[in-house]
Amino acid sequence: MGTFVGAYWDVRDESIDECAERIAALLPRLAEIDPLLSGWRDKAMTKKEALAAPVVGTDRDDLIQRLRRGLMPGAQPSAEGAGFSVFWWNGHSNKDGGATLNVTNAGSRIARLPRAVVVNIPDQSTAAQRYSASAAKQILQAVIETFEPKRAVWLDDSARDAQTEPDVVQPDGSVKLGKLVGQPAGWATYLADSEPTHFDRRSLPGSAAIDRVGDGTLVLLGDDPANPPLGDVLAVRAAMGYRVPQGESQAAPTVSPSDSPRTAALRGEERESAAGSLPHQPEQGDEGAPGQSRNPT
Asked: Which of 62, 131, 225, 297 could, after both became Cys, cross-link 187 (CB 3.0–4.6 A)?
């Protein structure tokens, strides 16, 4: 089962130097949390080519050159509003702890483009320590504090699927694929204070722990990031003002919000909910294959 940390923000006018500074600040923090979250190198068409690539460091000039190579396709270095991207792999196969780190369209001033940093986490079977609540929270904090996103999430495939609208068969027999509308919830869900979507704290499940990280609110669900109760994840989704897709509503929270002392104490702190933006998980290659992932959209 795939798991990823995704952080997303809106238009933010940043220079390539500022983008490089953020990446340089993030890399050592991830490496300190887990050695598998280091040793990054550019993806390539083959595993052999990727392994031959120089390992990414924190040297400012090197990071700037890497960001220039990752300009939005077709853009020139001086293009107005062009974003900078990097797509990295840690050199391990999936069964040995493969991970990827993608920064997409950083510094872009084009509203329709997604801006994101996504860390695809190795499977729990290869690196169980990374799925401790402490380590998972540290990864989130590192990403949030260095990139200052509007929205962030720790999300696994099953929880994402449960929040995706069902496919719809059209009159002509074609199928319209269901989409995940708005901000998904996961084991951890973050919203900046400046984000128009907010948590209705009275509706959060009893397992929810609420913390302040950066300039926003982080909601965590229990001590098992690998297996958050689906009912609790959907309750957080509903607490952000989203409708739970049909067929998933039967997954009840582990503790009813109305019975939770935590949520009862927060009744006076409700803030109105509004629609948020949609983060997406990029593709993952087989056996750690270094082919380029698609951008979040």
From this structure: 225
User: In angstroms, how far is the first alpha carbon of the chain from the final one?
Assistant: 21
DSSP line for 7-58:
EEE------HHHHHHHHHHHHHHHHHH-TTS---EE--SSHHHHHHSPPP--
> 62-78 burial, b for 16+ CB within 10 Å, e for fewer?
ebbebbeebbbeeeeee
- Tell me the two tokens of residue 45: 């068409």
User: Using CA atoms, how far apart are residues 133 and 222, in angstroms rounded to an integer?
Assistant: 8
User: What Rg value do the Cα atoms of the chain yield, rounded?
Assistant: 19
Helix (H) or strand (E) holding 159: helix 157-162
Distances (CA, A) of 294 to 206, 239, 268: 37, 30, 42
Predicted TM-score (pTM) of this structure: 0.80
pLDDT of residue 105: 92
